């Protein structure tokens, strides 16, 4: 019998890092296989058996390290120019992609110093009358009107049904993936099969084998839309590239009898919020001639803002399709964007009506007034319809606002009761905190916001202080040390705000229930 001894390493061929290609899951499977073979003895040469006592513990330690550090891997932060990291946390019920999720209170980027425009403060009385009118007038209620001439209202109207169904539990969204584990959740596999069938029906030009391969590929993720009693009625298959800061959308479809109900837009908005949470601020896709219209309505453009060198070679190009991209803002909640824009538009509209009740009145020309003044500049009071305006009605700007806020934060951070608030809550030590607290805030994050010029008015600063203490009281019981620290620090915050902002109607008031540890 003849045999050939093959070389253990082909030095003439290019070497690759297997872990970078197959990922952590592939490394875990390989380590488990190696440990099993070594413990059983395997085909080990006699001179190598002496080193088994060292190899097995090392391999076991490496496997434990990979499994425990898997959730701490963070993506490369690809922030668009001029944007900051998000300060809110949106939690989704998901499976997979845990290694790409980020903590709830990341540090905010520091923006460049620019000359700020002087701000005008709305009088409190006018603001109160505006809010009262919005509450009492059905024209400005939360329920949108199907008005084809009002684009903002129409957008809210189309998505309202989907939002109501989500609140009622009729529909829900999940992120699922196939994995290399031999035993997986049966329900998840059923959802993947339903999604594969949906894509095959709604995308007849795509080969069924190609759809199946991508949907069940462990590198791809699937955001699915579940409807009670019907299962999967829509979904988006995408592949994340966390090191590059983008995802590639491969398939997107809604079942035929559930279309034109706002599900498609709501599904895409959930995907955007999910990617903001994961730190991927660019969405890329190749759209055919039938999908360009849909993606354009979702904010995609053929002018991709992302540098080509970051995605070239990573995504697959399709013949006859157009590359489209969507850049996400890290501080935007896309599932609530249309409703928010409607409220802001209505607020401004009502405020103008309250402050200028005669705004619809028409006046004659002012050419004769210019002739009377020989073409010189006119004061606002000399122009018909502007008699109530003043040339110098802007309030004086608080030039010491930033120094006051820094001083308050410094005193709160150095106080002996301020230790629970000097940094964001550790999500690993208290995993349920960010599921319960929707808007986390702390003194460190507030200091970052001061540096980033986020607080353009004292009310924003005081509101964050109030929120910080409200989060403490709602999450911790009255018999805990955290509640007592929050109560004691709240006393100091109240004194400081009253001292440095004496005219502010907003104050961090103390709760009615006192901590039991002080009794």
UniProtKB/TrEMBL annotation:
SUPFAM superfamilies, A to Z: Acyl-CoA N-acyltransferases (Nat), Bromodomain
Assigned EC number: 2.3.1.48
GO cellular component annotations of the record: ATAC complex; nucleus
Gene3D superfamilies: 3.40.630.30, Bromodomain-like
Top-rank EC class of the record's enzyme: transferase
Superkingdom classification of source: Eukaryota
Residues in N-acetyltransferase domain copies: 181-329
Residues covered by region (Disordered): 97-120
Keywords recorded for this protein, A-Z: Activator, Acyltransferase, Bromodomain, Chromatin regulator, Nucleus, Transcription, Transcription regulation, Transferase
Residue span(s) of domain Bromo: 413-483
Stored SMART domains: BROMO (SM00297)
GO biological process, any: positive regulation of transcription by RNA polymerase II
Compartment(s): Nucleus
Gene Ontology MF terms in the entry: histone H3 acetyltransferase activity
Coiled-coil portions: none
Family classification: Belongs to the acetyltransferase family. GCN5 subfamily.
Protein name in UniProt: histone acetyltransferase
Organism this protein belongs to: Parelaphostrongylus tenuis (Meningeal worm)
